[in-house]
Amino acid sequence: MDQSPHPVATHHLPSFITAPGQTDVLMVVTAIFLAFAILMFGILFFRLHTLPERVAHKSQKVQFEIVAVLGLIALFTHMHIFWIIGLLLALIDIPDFGTALGRIAGSVEKIAGTKSTPEAGRAAQADIHARVEKSGHTETAPVKLEPAPAGQAEPEHV
Question: Where in the sequence is the domain holding 58, given as residue range(s)?
Fold first, then answer.
């Protein structure tokens, strides 16, 4: 095979033109650069996409889960409004009412001397209905019932 250039070609060829059978260095370098650029762009995209979740990670569990769901919806639907809502929700510090209300409920139960279980709540509700029916009160006004002392029968209402 003849390695001489074509007679019509110029005598000075650019450096990126390779001889037949040689490795095209420019194409290899471009392919490596392109793969690296796509990988870096994907990492940047996902880091930016998870920004609301990383901000909300320090907040309450419910707020974090809502922000995470909004981020997933934004990722799969490509609707950026969900990402913006998630970011705003992550930046807002929602006060924790649950802890205070739980402590108040626990203190009230401690004062009343009862334990809070769903079964105890249903039993107390059934006891109240039974006492109202037994007392004969059918009016809509609330009836104040005193608990019967332990070991004694309830007095009959006249």
Answer: 25-91
Name the residue type at position 145.
Answer: L
- Examine the domain organization and report whether 84 and 123 are in the same domain: no
Which pLDDT does position 141 carry in this prediction? 53
| Distance separating alpha carbons of residues 34 and 28, to the nearest angstrom | 10
Q: What is the pLDDT of residue 142?
A: 55
Each residue of 92-125: b (16+ CB within 10 Å) or e?
eeeeeeeeeeeeeeeeeeeeeeeeeeeeeeeeee
Tell me: pLDDT of 144 over 70.
no
Res 35: pLDDT: 98
The overall average pLDDT reported for the chain is: 80
Single-letter code of the amino acid located at 81: I
User: pTM higher than 0.90, yes or no?
Assistant: no
User: What is the count of structural domains for the chain?
Assistant: 2
- Per mean pLDDT, which range of 9-13, 37-41, 134-138, 140-144 is the poorest? 140-144
Same domain assignment for residues 33 and 87 = yes
Q: Which string of DSSP letters, residue by residue, matches 70-130?
A: HHHHHHHH--HHHHHHHHHHHHS----HHHHHHHHHHHHHHHHT----HHHHHHHHHHHHH
